[in-house]
Structures are given as structure tokens and as C-alpha cells.
Amino acid sequence: MPIKAILTDIEGTTSAVSFVFDVLFPYAAKHLPDFVRQHAERADVAEQLTAVRRDSNEPEADVERVIDILLGWIAEDRKATPLKALQGMVWAQGYQAGQLKGHVYPDAVEALKRWHQEGFKLFVYSSGSIQAQKLIFGCSEAGDLSPLFSGYFDTTSGPKREASSYARITQAIGVEPSQILFLSDIVEELDAARTAGMATCGLAREGGELAGHTTVDSFSRIDPSTF
Ligand SMILES: CSCCC(=O)C(=O)COP(=O)(O)O
Ligand SMILES: [Mg+2]
């Protein structure tokens, strides 16, 4: 069955790993402590602090201890949902202040625009929170790319290396899994998407192969009609 929807990862796929590791994560590490101290009582922040205490098995942790846990998770690139939610809130301030601009590879911008025009439905699935996803595309160096997307999925749909997450996303998109093309730079994510029945294409921007999957080094080499 022909591809109707394209689901894309962000880090390493539409956007440079270096933007996430050298710009976004350091920005969060610098600004998250004061953000948490200032907004610990705000309902959406308090909900995430409670989740950090639960996930770290430290139910009695005070705000300073929770901040330490979060900084540790940033350092080890933990894809923990409460960390990702809080990072999204901190980055929002950076984008609003004009201190951050989302990096999206020019070939990805061009292909996403073309696929949107050709009628493909475009979706994002990233470990970054939905708020963070909307910001990277909405406040990108190439302008506001958010009108191109029909929906966003984060780890509230499940971890990216588990097939059940892709089955959940397929239900939400509302087409057959074989009509969805998933793009990622991580072979375990591609394997999980394939197990759920999706078509897959690996992005290896420095060259090389993602074992068992069609692999390209640029969005310009992806033709959805060939999957
Ligand atoms: C949404 S931009 C921030 C990216 C991020 O926090 C992250 O963990 C990247 O994960 P991905 O699933 O896009 O590789
Ligand atoms: Mg990735």
C-alpha cells in the first residue's frame, strides 16, 4: 500500500545532534535550576517534580535535590518524560527571548515542504516533549515550519525503542502501519517501527548503513513512492 504519512525523528534526522548536545542541553543545564526554583509551585512544573521524585525513588527529595537529579539526567542524556517536559518549558523561554533558533537541515526543510505540498501527512516522534518539538520547527532558522505538520508524538506515547509505541502512534494517525514511513538515525528505533509494520528509512548523515534498513545521508535522497 502506498505511503500516506511520514513520521520523523528530530535529533540526528531533521536536525543536527550537535545542536541538541552543544546548544539545547547546555542551555537547559544553565537555566533549569533557577526555572525550577522560581516555578516549583506552578501546577505544570509541580506535576513534573512529583514525577521526578517518583521515577528516582526519592519521594522525599526537596527542590534542590530534584534539581541535582535533573542535571544528572541531562548529563547522561536520560530520555525521562518529566525531564523532557521541563526542558521544553526552559527552552520556550530561550526561543521567546530570541536566544535559541531551531536547527533543521536545509535538505529536510526542502523535502518536508515538498512532501506536504504533494499531500503526505507529516508527523514528528521525538523523545523531546511536544512543546519542544513545536518550538524547534516553529522557531527554526528557516522560519515557522509548524504548518507542515499534522501532529506530534513524544514519550507519552511510549519509549522510541519499543514496537508498542509505534502501534499506538499508528492508531492515532489512523492509517495502516505500512502506509507510514518512519525516518530515524537510530537502528533500534527503526527496528521497533518495522516490528509494528511501518516502512523505515535510516538517516546516516556522516555516511554508513543502519543495518537492515534503507539508509540515506540526506532527505533529498528519500522518495516516499519507493517504499
Ligand atoms: C525536540 S528537540 C529536543 C531533542 C531532545 O530533547 C531529545 O532527546 C532528542 O531525541 P530524539 O528522539 O529526537 O532523537
Ligand atoms: Mg534521533
UniProtKB/TrEMBL annotation:
GO MF entry, a single one: magnesium ion binding
Protein known as:
Enolase-phosphatase E1
Q: What is its EC number?
A: 3.1.3.77
Instruction: Indicate yes or no for the key word Metal-binding.
Output: yes
A GO biological process this protein is involved in? L-methionine salvage from methylthioadenosine
Asked if the Swiss-Prot or TrEMBL record annotates the protein with the keyword RNA-binding, the reply is no
Classification of source organism: Bacteria, Pseudomonadati, Pseudomonadota, Gammaproteobacteria, Pseudomonadales
- Identify which top EC class this enzyme belongs to: hydrolase
| Matches recorded under CDD domains | HAD_EP
| Functional note | Bifunctional enzyme that catalyzes the enolization of 2,3-diketo-5-methylthiopentyl-1-phosphate (DK-MTP-1-P) into the intermediate 2-hydroxy-3-keto-5-methylthiopentenyl-1-phosphate (HK-MTPenyl-1-P), which is then dephosphorylated to form the acireductone 1,2-dihydroxy-3-keto-5-methylthiopentene (DHK-MTPene).
Note on how the cofactor is bound: Binds 1 Mg(2+) ion per subunit.
What Pfam families does the annotation carry?
A: Hydrolase (PF00702)
What protein family is recorded?
Answer: Belongs to the HAD-like hydrolase superfamily. MasA/MtnC family.
| Organism domain of life | Bacteria
Mind telling me which SUPFAM superfamilies this protein's record contains? HAD-like
Q: Which reaction does it catalyse?
A: 5-methylsulfanyl-2,3-dioxopentyl phosphate + H2O = 1,2-dihydroxy-5-(methylsulfanyl)pent-1-en-3-one + phosphate
Q: Which cofactor does it need?
A: Mg(2+)
Q: Which UniProt keywords apply?
A: Amino-acid biosynthesis, Hydrolase, Magnesium, Metal-binding, Methionine biosynthesis
